[in-house]
Amino acid sequence: MYCIELTIKLSPMPLVVQRKEHEDAKRLYSEVIDSMKNGNPRLLELTCEKVEDKRITVLVSEITAVQIYEKTSSSTSKRPGFSLQQ
Fold first, then answer.
1. 48 is in which domain, residue-wise?
2. How many domains is the chain partitioned into structurally?
3. In whole angstroms, what is the distance from residue 10 CA to residue 31 CA?
4. How far apart are CA 21 and CA 61, in angstroms?
5. What percent of the chain has pLDDT over 90?
6. Is residue 82, in this structure, part of any structural domain at all?
7. Separation of alpha carbons 66 and 86, rounded Å
């Protein structure tokens, strides 16, 4: 499972949707980045493959960061974000 995590201005909690396939996750990540660059569309609606009825609509101008990472069930999974530890 792959997570696409959005950080929203003035919000302490990120918004997360999940994709089963890496290619689908990369496609969504690119769509969010393109929307941030262009400001189009103004609203971005995201769905989640893990929770089928989960839908999120976000104002593109409020997105401050987006990241993609693989969610694994093991305790040694890589933490999201950037760190100096490997």
1. 2-70
2. 1
3. 23
4. 27
5. 67
6. no
7. 21
Model pTM greater than 0.85?
no
**Domain membership flag for residue 54:** yes
Categorize the per-residue pLDDT at 19 as very low, low, confident or very high, splitting at 50, 70 and 90: very high
Instruction: Evaluate whether residue 15 is within a structural domain.
Output: yes
Tokens 């769509």 belong to which residue? 31
Q: Are 17 and 47 in contact (CB under 8 A)?
A: yes
| Any domain includes 48 | yes
Rg from Cα positions in the chain: 13
Say how far apart CA 82 and CA 76 lie, in whole Å. Answer: 16
How far apart are the C-alpha atoms of 19 and 23, rounded to whole Å?
A: 9
